[in-house]
Amino acid sequence: MGAYEELMAFQRVTEALAQVSGRLGWDQETVMPRGAARQRGEEMAAMEEVLHARRTDPRIGDWLAAIDEAALDDTARANLRLIRRSWERATRVPAALATEIARVTSLAQGIWAEARREDDFARFAPTLETVVRLKREEAAALADGGDLYDALLEDYEPETSAAEIAALFDAMRPRLVALRERILGLERTPPALSGHFDEAGQMQLSREMAEAFGYDFSRGRIDKAVHPFSSGSGDDVRITTRTVTHDPFNCIYSTIHEVGHAAYEQNIAPEHHLTPVGRGVSMGVHESQSRSYENQLGRSRAFTGWLYGRMRALWGDFGVADADASYAIVNRVVPGFIRTEADEVHYNLHIFLRFDLERALIAGRLEVADLPEAWNARFREDFGVAVDRPSHGVLQDVHWSVGLFGYFPTYALGNVYAGCLMAALRRDVPDLDAHLARGDTRPATAWMAEHLQRFGGLRTPRETIRHATGAEPSEAPLLDYLEAKFGELYGL
Known about the structure:
mainly alpha, Neurolysin, domain 3, 3-stranded mixed beta sheet, 3 strands, globular, metalloprotease, Metal-dependent carboxypeptidase, hydrolase, EC 3.4.17.19
């Protein structure tokens, strides 16, 4: 074999082992017995030790040096770009540090879940301090004298910086806040859903929603988790959801959101499976799929009308007069505590808060002991509401417990990308609403698969959006969409 073929054969095994490691994480969040947490931490650490050794293998450098990139096609060059980036980053991080991060974050996840359940930040604080210390060490190793947060952000949104994201968020904030103030100033909020919706019915509807949005159950499954997520790629892509007996929309839209992630992975061209190109290119692009499926499609007037009919068929008269009332409830704008339940107008403000706090944590301008006070003060400033307990504030998200510093801004970036994609989709599929009103998402999901999903990591994140839409990424389509949708809904 030539150098490229040898490198890709080696990489295929690494990719397969990474999938096995991801399956351990899925198991931990869904069916693992609680008493297995400590052993699972050791198992995850052992897997990370093996993976780190492979990702830093000196032969990778030799293969990269020996390959004539000019003789390769676009896919091969993309694989080399991704392998080189991974190798250069991995070789900067000591193996002992990578292994310790895997062990500690596996244990931290369970400790966070217990602290959240008991509303006891003090129980979690020592563990979070350890996680933050380790992530600062990792950032310092990766940054090579540069910005620590940028070094961590690279794992989730390559080729961008915290400064660029901060500028984007600053550009978004005025129009978002103005829209929110106009809506809340009306003092007219649609009523919340009330009643009891059995778990079995919610899970049945969850499966229907997954199928409606193109999820392939022959290569996936739905389970329950505290914090819904999607896991895996290629031919094994699993999703989770959660049920709340008084709010079936929580389950419905958690499912649709995770199906957006899963569809991206399931629809990557089979020839890319178990290669670096065979994964979503970034979390921002990934979120563009989940947020567009959940919001622009799933919360549209057309689709919610069809969904209302399905809920009537399942639960009979559930206290909502008609499809228009259901659409208003699904899109009600209220300043709530929980990010994952936030309406589209407030959602990005939640992300701005977390982005600023985690940048300060990694930079050392904020310490874990001061985090609840900083969170609560910022939340009151941004939302005008006092946080009543830690599970509604600093303990609500799993991300920091598992060391995902740099992940949060990709949610808002994903919304921006989703705005660009949906503007292009509606341009190309002018009768989209007629299909959605019948519960038929195929014109939309097929467009996403054809223009974006099948390529995986072939292009950089911004190139991916530019290729799909024909335009540079911009916040304007998202803000235009929000103002049009909620302006019509609230009569602004």
